[in-house]
């Protein structure tokens, strides 16, 4: 498959590459995708004659932030293309080239609108989507079938089914079974989980796109109060310390009926060592109220061009190439990375590797976006204040209504100090 994609990319250029005026640019890439990025660079060179030198980012992506800050503050020409988390876009928007007129509109339109729009800040298109993540609900399809349950549409239905199956499994000797494993540790992951609950209940996403602090509302408080009631009932007390990996371990050991996580769990749950191979279903996250949308937290990755690049047009061409249909298909097939290009959700070769995409396309389209675009460099402080506050509510020390009233005031002060 990889060879087919690379050959197709070369064929676009008529199987030849012009060596006249060949240019070299520098691009950052995730360490887990270094080999893939190198192959993409080879295909781009075959097409254009230009070369992209791939730089491996730190193992922990957040460690790249100070490196980026240093390079961009110095207006360095040593880097042309940046690999970016969605929550970094607002942080670096002043240092990124506007790609609106540099990437053909037809290519922009191939991506999910929610994913592309997350990169449209202050009227500029600061990056192009490379692939996407969104919060999804994994579940034991064998247990739902055993007890005559359909995949739940609402959080209340999930809680009810989780409790019933949990109790019946325990009565049948599976005393470690829990109904729902998720992430309630005080960290960025809780920002995602909480936004999903709140947005699907009509409570917004902390701060609106126009900068209004919206978190102090009854729908938000209701959603978190409901989640608080799950702890000790369908979720263990330990969920207050669960991140993605800790909660995944519970699910893949066979000790949870439902599990919220990112799409990578499809792959890990089917690897040797998992107790639930061929027993997993995937669905969009439930909604809190009728009329609301499933609101999985959007977690895509992007490529952007440094405003200080000496070769902006060449760098923009590479960004459009690495985020284009052929290369996204290659990443989906070779690395099971979920494409941001909508047409690939019906591609047979992609669906053969990631079969759940076909039935969960709407989950990617209806995703909820963290307020990183408006908050920019203040996002980390906003998110930290939010997840710490929510953790206090879930652990029992703060009433959600009072907690969000207090948080709203803190965020207003933070907004004034920007």
From TrEMBL:
GO annotation, cellular component aspect: periplasmic space
InterPro entries reported for this sequence: Bact_solute-bd_prot1, SBP
Signal sequence, renumbered to the chain: 1-22
Transmembrane segments: none
The entry's keywords: Periplasm, Plasmid, Signal, Transport
Pfam families linked: SBP_bac_1
Tree of life domain: Bacteria
Family per record: Belongs to the bacterial solute-binding protein 1 family.
Listed name of the protein: Trehalosemaltose ABC transporter
Upper classification of the organism: Bacteria, Pseudomonadati, Pseudomonadota, Alphaproteobacteria, Hyphomicrobiales
């Amino acid at each position: 498959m990889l060879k087919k994609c690379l050959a197709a990319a070369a064929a676009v250029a008529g199987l030849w590459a012009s060596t006249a005026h060949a240019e070299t640019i520098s691009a950052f890439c995730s360490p887990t995708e270094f080999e893939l990025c190198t192959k993409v660079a080879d295909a781009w060179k075959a097409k254009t004659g230009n070369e992209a030198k791939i730089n491996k980012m730190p193992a922990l992506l957040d460690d790249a932030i100070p490196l980026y800050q240093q390079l961009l503050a110095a207006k360095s020409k040593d880097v042309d293309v940046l690999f970016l988390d969605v929550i970094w876009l607002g942080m670096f928007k002043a240092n990124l080239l506007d790609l609106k007129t540099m990437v053909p509109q037809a290519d922009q339109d191939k991506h999910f609108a929610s994913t592309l729009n997350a990169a449209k800040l202050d009227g500029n298109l600061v990056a192009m989507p490379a692939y996407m993540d969104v919060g999804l609900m994994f579940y034991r399809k064998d247990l739902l079938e055993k007890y005559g349950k359909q995949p739940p549409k609402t959080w209340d239905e999930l809680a009810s089914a989780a409790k019933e199956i949990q109790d019946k499994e325990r009565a049948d000797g599976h005393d470690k079974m829990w109904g729902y494993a998720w992430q309630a540790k005080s960290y960025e992951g809780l920002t995602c989980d909480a936004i999903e609950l709140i947005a699907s209940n009509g409570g917004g996403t902390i701060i609106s796109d126009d900068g209004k602090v919206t978190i102090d509302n009854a729908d938000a408080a209701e959603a978190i109060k409901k989640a608080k009631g799950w702890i000790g009932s369908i979720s263990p007390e330990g969920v207050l310390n669960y991140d993605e990996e800790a909660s995944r371990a519970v699910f893949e050991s066979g000790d949870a009926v439902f599990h919220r996580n990112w799409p990578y769990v499809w792959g890990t749950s089917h690897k040797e060592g998992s107790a639930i191979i061929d027993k997993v279903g995937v669905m969009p996250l439930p909604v809190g109220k009728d009329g609301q949308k499933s609101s999985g937290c959007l977690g895509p990755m992007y490529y952007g061009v440094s405003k200080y690049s000496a070769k902006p047009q060449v760098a923009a061409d590479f960004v459009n190439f690495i985020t284009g249909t052929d290369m996204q298909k290659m990443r989906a097939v070779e690395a099971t990375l979920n494409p941001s290009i909508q047409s690939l959700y019906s591609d047979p070769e992609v669906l053969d590797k990631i079969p759940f995409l076909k039935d969960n396309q709407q989950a990617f389209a209806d995703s909820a976006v963290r307020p990183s675009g408006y908050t920019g460099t203040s996002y980390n402080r906003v998110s930290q204040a939010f997840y710490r506050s929510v953790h206090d509510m879930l652990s029992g020390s703060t009433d959600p209504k009072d907690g969000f009233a207090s948080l709203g005031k803190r965020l207003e002060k933070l907004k004034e100090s920007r």
